[in-house]
């Protein structure tokens, strides 16, 4: 790929960041719109869960496939396909006449979204070849997530109160179309020198595992055991099949050798725990603020600011701290703050006081702001360069899976607790087990942050990386040996 001018590189970065912004903003803004959607579409709690989880579930299932496909057939092609699909899905969501079609169209959105974030990161990595420039570009990319967290609830609340929840999807249309046209004109095509081969069986097993597990959790409160247990059994069978099948492939969808590294395994579980806490926190908070306190969508969005602003401010601080001191301080701070926030809800009934409610939101925002940088750093540090992209994809998938499970589990607990009682009267007591679950997620971040960032853990990461490098060299030598043919005259 030819060297691009500084101005054009910045334009490519802006295009990639705009794709991340619409994907992230859409999800955070939509949480504020849940009560409005519930009233208009006559949705149950499980219906609301599916409007969030249909998106994150498809995203989690397809992230690794999208990344490897882009490496193989061209990143620009896949990125443009993702923009077109996401924009079309947004238009369909805005026109959905009922909850069932909205959920289907959210899945269309997610298919497009899965082609945006991992592919955009690959485009940035290949566009910014200088290490310093690349670090700054990735820093700006990360800041966009913070902006979406801060702006999402406010933008969502403003749109819901002034126009309606459908307007949240309209915002994506001009941004998506502009990004599509600019990508066509400005973004150069690129491919990986050696792309990973497709793994259709592994991909099908991942979709089966994630889909059946989420369905069993969400539908458990309202369905008979006989209709839920088959899906739970299917999830278990898919997991066992993955563990058996993937190590037998030369280029598996999920390289299980990564999990021999204690820090990598810890980062994966920490990502699931932290994002499960985020998904559950946003789901319960927005329903509480609007359905119990009776706030408008805009006022509920304003109440989210004590969480969103610290997330935005703490993310770059965490990145610097990880660079200077390693992942442990950030993980311990994140786990302690998230645990304290959930305990305030579970033990002290912070709903009764604006001051304590503000403190709980503030603590959660600080914790979540510090947790992202060490997850990414731990996932890719020490891995051979050829494997770093796959390792990062596993971390990204873990984040989406965590958010999916957080909404599924907390929503299921909430639905079973509310039952047929008066919603306002039952909500606070019904949400109590959910806050204890989020306390457990915070403790998992805290405990695993301490256990998987010590000297022994780092030694296991070094051993794993060395084995992977040795395997790469052996495979390369095997290829050279096979191709070494002597020609006799």
N-to-C CA distance: 39 Å
What number of domains?
Answer: 3
The CATH topology assignment of the largest domain is Growth Hormone, Chain: A
* Helical content (DSSP H or I, runs of 4+): over 70%
Q: Low-confidence parts, pLDDT < 50 over ≥5 residues?
A: 479-489
Q: CATH H-level name of the largest domain... which superfamily?
A: MFS general substrate transporter like domains
CATH architecture of the largest domain: Up-down Bundle
- Largest beta-sheet characterization: none
Structural class: mainly alpha
Rg value: 22 Å
Fraction in beta strands: under 5%
Mean pLDDT: 83
Which labels suit this protein?
mainly alpha; 0% strand; disordered C terminus; 3 domains; Growth Hormone, Chain: A; 18 helices; globular; 489 residues
Characterise this structure.
- With 489 residues, the protein is mainly α.
- The chain folds into three domains: 1-193, Growth Hormone, Chain: A (Up-down Bundle), CATH 1.20.1250; 200-248; 258-489, Growth Hormone, Chain: A (Up-down Bundle), CATH 1.20.1250.20.
- Helices cover 83% and strands 0% of the residues.
- It has 18 helices and no strands.
- The chain has helices at 6-41, 45-73, 75-95, 99-114, 117-127, 131-162, 167-170, 172-186, 200-219, 225-245, 262-292, 297-303, 305-325, 328-348, 354-380, 385-418, 423-451, 455-483.
- α1 crosses α11 (262-292) and α6 (131-162) runs antiparallel to α12.
- The radius of gyration is 22 Å and the shape is globular.
- The two termini are 39 Å apart.
């Amino acid at each position: 790929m030819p060297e691009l001018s500084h101005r054009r590189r910045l334009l490519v970065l802006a295009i990639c960041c705009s794709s991340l912004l619409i994907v992230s903003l859409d999800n955070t803004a939509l949480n504020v719109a849940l009560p409005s959607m519930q009233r208009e579409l006559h949705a149950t709690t499980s219906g609301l869960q599916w409007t969030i989880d249909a998106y994150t579930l498809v995203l989690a299932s397809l992230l690794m496939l999208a990344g490897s496909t882009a490496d193989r057939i061209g990143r620009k092609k896949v990125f443009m396909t993702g923009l077109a699909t996401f924009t079309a899905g947004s238009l369909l969501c805005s026109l959905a006449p009922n909850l069932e079609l909205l959920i289907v169209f959210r899945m269309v959105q997610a298919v497009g979204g899965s082609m945006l974030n991992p592919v955009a990161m690959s485009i940035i990595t290949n566009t910014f070849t200088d290490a310093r420039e690349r670090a700054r570009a990735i820093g700006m990319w990360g800041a966009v997530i913070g902006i979406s967290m801060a702006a999402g609830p406010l933008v969502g609340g403003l749109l819901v109160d002034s126009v309606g929840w459908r307007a949240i999807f309209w915002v994506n249309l001009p941004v998506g179309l502009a990004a599509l046209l600019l990508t066509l004109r400005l973004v150069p095509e690129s491919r990986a020198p050696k792309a990973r081969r497709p793994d259709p069986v592994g991909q099908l097993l991942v979709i089966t595992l994630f889909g059946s597990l989420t369905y069993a959790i969400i539908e458990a409160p309202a369905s008979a055991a006989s209709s839920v247990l088959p899906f739970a059994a299917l999830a278990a069978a898919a997991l066992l099949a993955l563990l058996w099948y993937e190590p037998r492939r030369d280029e598996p969808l999920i390289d299980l050798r990564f999990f021999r590294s204690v820090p990598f395994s810890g980062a994966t579980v920490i990502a699931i725990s932290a994002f499960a806490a985020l998904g559950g926190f946003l789901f319960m908070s927005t329903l509480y603020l609007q359905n119990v306190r009776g706030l408008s969508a805009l006022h509920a969005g304003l109440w989210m600011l004590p969480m969103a602003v610290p997330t935005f401010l703490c993310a770059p601080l965490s990145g610097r701290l990880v660079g200077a001191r390693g992942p442990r301080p950030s993980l311990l701070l994140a786990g302690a703050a998230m645990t304290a926030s959930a305990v305030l809800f579970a033990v002290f009934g912070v709903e009764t006081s604006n001051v304590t409610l503000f403190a709980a939101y503030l603590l959660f925002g600080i914790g979540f702001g510090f947790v992202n940088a060490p997850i990414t750093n731990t996932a890719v540090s020490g891995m051979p360069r050829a494997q770093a992209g796959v390792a990062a994809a596993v971390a990204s998938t873990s984040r989406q899976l965590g958010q999916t499970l957080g909404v599924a589990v907390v929503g299921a607990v909430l639905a079973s607790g509310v039952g047929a009682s008066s919603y306002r009267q039952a909500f606070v007591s019904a949400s109590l087990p959910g806050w204890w679950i989020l306390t457990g997620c915070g403790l998992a971040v805290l405990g695993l942050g301490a256990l998987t960032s010590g000297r022994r853990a780092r030694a296991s990461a070094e051993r794993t990386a060395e084995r992977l490098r040795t395997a790469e060299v052996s495979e390369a030598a095997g290829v050279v040996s096979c191709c070494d043919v002597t020609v006799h005259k």
